[in-house]
Design goal:
Aminopeptidase, single chain
Length: 355
């Protein structure tokens, strides 16, 4: 096996965006399309791009890709993620029998790079996926001091051939009663419309403008990278996976949700509402419609509520899984050796104190 590193999406071999572009890569948030948007709109100023491509030495068959970035100090290698991310993993094009060897090759290459990386850090890893344990074992066996850490709960719902009516009937009575009461009153007193923007056509610009207007009237902090969400919406629309819902009250946009529906999975990516309409539960009313579309029209098998343990997610979801990270200290470098020693001493002290 051999590893090549690319410092630009434009320089990637054509096979990479083809093989790891949606829909060949069914998980959009691990696709070349996603990582390109993320880097170009929010990471380009802080990281130097490093895309690792593992290939068979003889056949040139592509075996794996891992999207990373180097910190400005040149000593820290990190997975290509930030607060816009929900999941990360090395993308493997091999079966589980070969996965260990492929990840081992990738880790060997990273460990041998010069000047050496002091820290190799990966975030937003699904702990239930085999890559998580393989990475941890591979790094540890090659002399890295590996510190796993927890980041988020990820709430999700697996559908078992049920209709939306059946799904919603199983939701908590509190949610169902609140929704029916609030929606009946809102529709009785006002003109209410819900629009779903799906395609890259002449209406999409209005959807983006309405989304932005609602976001600016919500409780959320201003977007640090204003180009990211519009670029994401346009790309999802082009790929046919956009479900951008906007709820209007008397023609005023007051609630919005950005869902990404790729094949059998719907991801609730962003949501917000105008705080002036909080008491009317406009977000809940919009959720009801988007869940209906996902279940009855898109026929998804899973609905993913993203990262975070907010209480309202429990009303809609049924299960949770862990999202975590790995900080691997390269003790083969002088800074890493010193850092590793400090970590070990800290762990010893913590163990003594906790006895």
């Amino acid at each position: 096996m051999k590893v090549r590193v690319y410092d630009s999406f434009d320089r990637l071999p054509a096979l990479v965006p083809e093989r790891n572009g949606y829909p060949n890569q069914p998980e959009f948030l691990l696709s070349n399309d996603w990582f390109s948007i993320l880097f170009e709109t929010s990471l380009k100023q802080s990281l130097s791009l490093r895309i690792y491509v593992v290939s068979d030495a003889n056949s040139e068959e592509m075996l794996a890709i891992m999207y990373c970035g180097a910190g400005q100090d040149g000593r820290r290698l990190i997975g290509l993620t930030n607060f816009y991310s929900q999941v990360f993993a090395p993308i493997l094009f091999v079966d589980r029998k070969r996965a260990e060897a492929v990840i081992g090759c990738l880790v060997d290459f990273i460990a041998a790079e010069r000047p050496g990386w002091t820290v190799f850090e990966l975030r937003y890893l699904r702990e239930d996926r085999p890559e998580y344990a393989l990475l941890q074992d591979s790094l540890a066996s090659r002399g890295f001091l590996v510190n796993p850490f927890r980041q988020y709960n990820n709430w999700y719902y697996t559908l078992e051939d049920e209709s939306f009516a059946q799904y919603f009937e199983s939701r908590p009575s509190r949610l169902k009663n609140t929704l029916r009461r609030k929606e009946n009153k809102l529709r009785r007193d006002h003109e209410v419309e819900i629009r779903i923007f799906r395609r890259d056509n002449e209406t999409l610009g209005q959807g983006i403008a309405d989304y932005t207007s609602i976001y600016n009237s919500s409780w959320k902090q201003p977007e640090p990278f204003r180009e990211f969400t519009p670029a994401l919406i346009v790309t999802c629309a082009r790929l046919g996976i956009l479900r951008l819902g906007v709820l209007y009250v008397d023609d005023r946009p007051v609630a919005t949700q950005l869902w990404i529906t790729n094949r059998s999975k719907a991801i609730i990516y962003k949501l917000c509402y105008d705080e002036a309409y909080k008491k009317q539960s406009v977000g809940t009313i919009l959720s009801h419609e988007l869940f209906r579309i996902a279940i009855d029209e898109d026929r998804v098998r899973e609905i993913d509520y993203g990262v975070g343990d907010e209480a309202y997610k429990r009303d809609w979801m049924a299960d949770t899984r862990q999202i975590g990270g790995l900080e691997a200290i390269n003790t083969g470098t002088i800074p890493g050796f010193v850092m590793g020693g400090c970590v070990r001493i800290k762990n010893i002290i913590k163990t003594i104190v906790n006895r």
